[in-house]
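This is your field. Have a critical look at the following sequence-structure pair:

***
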Amino acid sequence: MIGEGKKIYIAYRNKSEVSYTVVFKTGKLIELDMASDALEAAGIPFYRQEESLSGIRQAMPAFPTALPGTWWSILVPVPFQSQAIEVLEGLPFERKTDPEIWDFNPPHDVKRGFQAAVIAALIFVMAWFILTILEAV
């Protein structure tokens, strides 16, 4: 069954100049699903996308994976922005559009593991760089 919000979305989708704006961005899938369900229940048209730290944006994948620097956004047509924000403000978590890199809320051990891997990679690159310079001399 097509809800009222979906009929509006179909009418908007057929227009060539539709601007969308981000009303919510998170690294937690449960928050994304709750926000999506609330917007759908309110009949507000929206779409979701995945964004990485590198700036790459893509359609919502079938099997999203929470990693550092990976977020999911909800975008709505600009005329629906204030209505969408009002709906999202009523949810039991903070509505944000600029989450931090660790927003997916990993356990402390996982966070330390990522940090240790980055430090090890940097040490390896620095050692390789120094060895390359010494061989050239």
